[in-house]
Design goal:
Helix content is 44%, strand content 18%. It is α/β, with parallel strands linked by helices.
Amino acid sequence: MDFLNYGRNLIIALLGFAVIPGYAQSYPDRAVRLIVPFAPGGTTDVLARILGQRLGENLGQQVLIDSRAGAAGNLGTALAARAAPDGYTLLLGVVSPLAINVSLYGSKLPYSPVRDFAPISMITKVPQVIALHPSVPARTVRQLIALAKAHPGKMTFGSAGAGTSNHLVGELLKTVTGIQMVHVPYKGAGPASIAVFSGEIDMMISGPPAVMNFFKQGRLYPLAVTSATRSPALPNVPTMIESGLPGFEATAWYCLMAPAGTPRSIIDIVNAALVKALDTPQIRQRLLDEGAAPESSTPEELGNFIKAEIEKWGKAVKLAGAQVGG
């Protein structure tokens, strides 16, 4: 009898091992939630909507976009960090909450970008662009600096929130030129762009995807981009370096993350689905049209990149003297 029980248990155990790969292959068997930590209308939202459908097609399930704006991306990012590590909640990661805010918020940051997340892949790196209300009498960076110096503390610039890369670029501009401008934070680039083209503020600093349509419509004027070379989407817009500010370069980035503890098998499935989406000609062209060049990576490459960015932006925060209340 004992021998028979042993044999039966051995068969059950072997069958159990045999079906384990089946569970891994079943992912995903329901819709996947993609948390976007900024308000609709901004760069993160644009990227999520461009990629979401194709990512879902590649995974074989719907990808539901869940916008959770607040606290410079901290609110949505913290929500993703606390989600179950089962692959059904992903985060569209952004430079601000994953790198900049480590220095700005310190121990008050409600998550650790390194400890609480599993990297999946880079999505894109984009320059920032200075967008003016057409009524502002400046068509070059030099003219903008002269105008700000003539009216210290009177000009206003908007961003997607205190502590975002948009905000940091503005603070760095103030630091290296000695001008005084008032920072007006919003809950995303979408609300900020509405504020600037309505004349509520003078200018904003943003990723191109959030403002490209306003440039085409003539509602905003693109003054300069912060990349080392001109953006293919804005070939006639000079860089800050060309505009007389040597070494002035700042690039925002966007990636896909999962909660820490998500099985590597699931990370690999999502990575493959995203890389396939980014390699699709239609998706690549849509991203390029928005000023966002597709760039995928391995999970390890992304993890190392984020660690380096935390250190880099920490120095920028110190140089600019930026504060979360500012």
